[in-house]
Design goal:
alpha+beta; five-stranded mixed β-sheet; OB fold (Dihydrolipoamide Acetyltransferase, E2P); five-stranded mixed β-barrel; N Utilization Substance Protein A, Chain:P, domain 4; about 450 residues
Length: about 450
């Protein structure tokens, strides 16, 4: 029920407008009256202001302590004077405090202006605290905003009744905006400043990619398909590792969608960023094999399990595709899997084997028969591990950065990574992967084998 008292109505209206509790407004008004009174009375009295809900007024008092002998009349009152005020039978003792009413109608115009400033300041501080608490709990969420202005390369967005900042370093180099554009970004951090809460957004954080998949893929939203990791080089390429908690649900196919509609919606939101969706596996070799998609891997060897180093051998024609432009593909794969990856082509691996055989041959103590057996075993190992690659990566153009290297090494540093919590689940080691090309929204998904999905251009 709305009060008929003008001050009470003002308190309720201000609280509703600013989205704060009425008690916060009352406290601000009490402090405002107290500040104005101290300026007017200019005394050393212990002044206190209280809101009286019965009459809807803010009352002012000078508080004095009861003493035997008064030494400071501004803050003390004798016990005899106190008994005169409250009666001889009143229960007053030394140490009690008595409130003496003070007039507020004499404060004047200047004091009223001071009170008004204090009220607005306190209300604004309370409002900022509410905004900070609200958005601080939403770090990692995606929010929509409208480009309002530009400040030294940073983009200021209007988000509801507040502003947020998209710093230059959090902007994708493939994107450009004009005033009035709408965009989605993830809340990276929330801080406090003299101007109020500072909400920092990001368009490059892998968390944005994860949230977009959660919005576009129902199976991810309901927990059937889990995202185990995502890495990005914003504006160029990203890799996402997924797995299914149900055997009859294909995690890669669910993320791609019918004719690529789901992944293409995310690609459009990221302004053409290519996305490789690969199947996660608790088998490190299988996971690294999948992560190097769209390249086809011949064989993978764990060189050092403790230091997490793997050697990957690919066909000569697959080397540039496995490495990627300026090492991008293997760099993202290394960051996604957490393994250092040494990529070599078959020719280089053959030379290594020949060099090892030559070293054995130079040892006079090595029997000829043993040398021949070693060579034969090496040749058999190479031939038995050669797998004929399928055509899954046919649509992916090899890197054209002029690289003629026979090998490449990528470690796990230099790329941002975000991981989504998931329970461990053993899944098939078959590599299931898709490379979504940003240059075409008109794609088709054709099923080649039960565990292979390929996105091809129509």
């Amino acid at each position: 029920m709305t009060s008929s008292n003008p001050l009470q109505q003002t308190i309720e209206a201000l609280a509703k407008e600013k989205g704060i509790e009425p008690d916060v407004v009352i406290q601000a008004m009490e402090e405002a009256v107290l500040t104005a009174s101290r300026k007017y009375y200019k005394s050393t009295e212990d002044l206190r202001a209280k809101f009286n809900p019965e009459n809807g007024q803010i009352e002012l008092f000078a508080v004095k302590t009861i003493v035997d002998d008064v030494t400071n009349p501004a803050i003390e009152v004798s016990i005899s004077e106190a008994k005169e005020m409250y009666g001889a039978d009143a229960e007053v003792e030394v140490g009690y405090q008595i409130e003496f009413p003070k007039r507020t109608d004499v404060l004047g115009r200047i004091a009223a202006q001071t009170a008004k400033q204090v009220i607005f300041q306190k209300v604004r501080e309370a409002e900022r605290e509410i905004i900070f608490a609200e958005y601080n709990e939403r770090v990692g969420e995606v929010m929509n905003g409208i480009v309002k202005r530009f400040e030294q390369g940073d983009i200021i967005l209007e988000v509801g009744r507040i502003e947020a900042i998209l710093p230059r370093k959090e902007q994708s180099r493939a994107e450009s905006y004009t005033q009035g554009d709408r965009l989605r970004a993830v809340i990276r951090s929330v801080g406090k400043s003299a101007k109020g809460p500072q909400i920092v957004l990001s368009r490059t954080d892998p968390a944005l990619l994860i949230k977009l998949f959660e919005q576009e893929v129902p199976e991810i939203y309901d927990g059937t398909v889990m995202i185990r990791g995502a890495v990005r080089e914003a504006g160029d390429r990203a890799k996402v590792a997924v797995y299914s908690r149900e055997r009859d649900v294909d995690p890669v196919g669910a993320c791609v969608g019918m004719k690529g509609t789901r992944v293409q919606a995310i690609i459009r939101e990221l302004r053409g960023e290519k996305i490789d969706i690969v199947e996660w596996s608790d088998d490190a070799v299988a996971f690294v094999t999948n992560a190097l998609s769209p390249a086809k891997v011949q064989r993978v060897t764990i060189v050092n399990d403790q230091e997490r180093v793997m050697e990957v051998v690919v066909e000569d024609k697959q080397l540039s595709l496995a490495i990627g432009k300026k090492g991008q593909n293997v760099r993202l794969a290394a960051k996604l899997t957490g393994w250092r990856i040494d990529i070599k082509n078959e020719e280089e691996k053959r030379k290594e084997v020949e060099a090892q055989l030559g070293a054995f041959g130079s040892n006079d103590d090595t029997p000829t028969g043993d040398l021949e057996d070693t060579a034969e075993a090496s040749a058999n190992d190479a031939s038995s591990n050669d797998a004929s690659p399928d055509d899954t990566a046919a649509n992916e153009t090899p890197a054209t950065d002029g690289s003629t290297e026979d090998s490449f090494t990528a470690d796990t540093e230099g790329t941002e990574q975000a991981s989504a919590d998931a329970t461990s689940s053993a899944i098939t080691d078959d590599a299931e992967q898709v490379s979504a090309d940003a240059t075409s929204d008109d794609t088709d998904i054709t099923e080649r084998t039960p565990t292979e999905i390929t996105e091809t251009q129509k």
